[in-house]
Amino acid sequence: MMKYSIAIMATILLAGAAEALTLKTGQVLGSDGQIYQGASPETRQQLINKVQKGGEIAGVANGNVYVVVGETITFLPLADIQGLTDSTVKTRIGDRVVQNVTGIESLTFADLEAARMLSQQTGLDLSAIIAAGGLDGLEPGMLAQIQKASAETGIGMQNLLAVSTIMDSLPEDKVAELSADLESLIAEGFAEQLDEILTAAQEEGVLDNLLRFNSLEECQAAGADNCDAADRFADQNDPNAG
Question: How far apart are CA 72 and CA 50, in angstroms?
């Protein structure tokens, strides 16, 4: 009789606790009585195991959309995306996944896609771009400017990025002079040849000297390496020659 009475009391107490408990959007009550965001630890592990066995990486569970990336699960309450357009839903979910996986709250899915493209076009390590805090970690607005310049001139992203990086460390007067020279060459129809020259200069390790110095003497006076090689390269690849 005592056991029966205790069971009844426990049921009454649990019912009262359930009525008093209010879960916030996206929260769930685990079998251990604890409140979790998205899913309990057991459910999370089940979802990860399912994906590792070839299951879908995304789905809906406990009123949340979930996406599994490796050992990380991202949850987004369905209530947060109800009534939104498909493109907006994809953006919301994508942003949440990227931020959860990388731990960078300011990083967006669009940033990641742009970083991936930049990595492919320039050979930069994608993880390094992300670790720098996204594309803004490299230089605010740099990607958009370089993409625009590449589209307008036909000069590759990798070459424009190399030029941009070197020019960042030059004095303002040298940057203005170099910019004017490059713009002049492009305006005169030398974009394609210039792209080829920049690529060859990078491969031979003389691009930095070519952009920094106006002559062999200036290069040598600064104590730079490969001055002779840069001078020979300049003579052999002058777009204005001939």
Answer: 13
Query: Does the reported pTM lie above 0.90?
Result: no
Q: How would you write the pLDDT of the chain (242 residues) with one tens digit per residue?
A: 333 344 444 443 444 344 444 556 666 666 666 777 777 788 888 888 988 888 888 888 878 888 888 888 888 888 888 888 888 888 898 888 888 887 878 778 887 777 777 777 666 666 666 665 555 555 545 666 677 777 777 887 777 777 877 877 788 888 888 888 888 777 777 888 888 888 888 888 888 888 888 888 988 988 888 889 888 888 887 655 55
Laid out side by side, the sheet with 64-69 consists of 58-61, 64-69, 72-77
- What is the spatial distance between Cα 114 and Cα 120, in angstroms, rounded to a whole number? 10
Dihedral, 240, 228, 226, 156 alpha carbons, nearest 10: 10
Helix (H, G, I), strand (E, B) or coil at 107: coil
Round to whole Å and give the CA distance between 219 and 211. Answer: 10
**Which value, in Å, is the radius of gyration of the alpha carbons in the chain?**
29
Do residues 27 and 40 lie in contact, with contact meaning Cβ atoms separated by under 8 Å? no
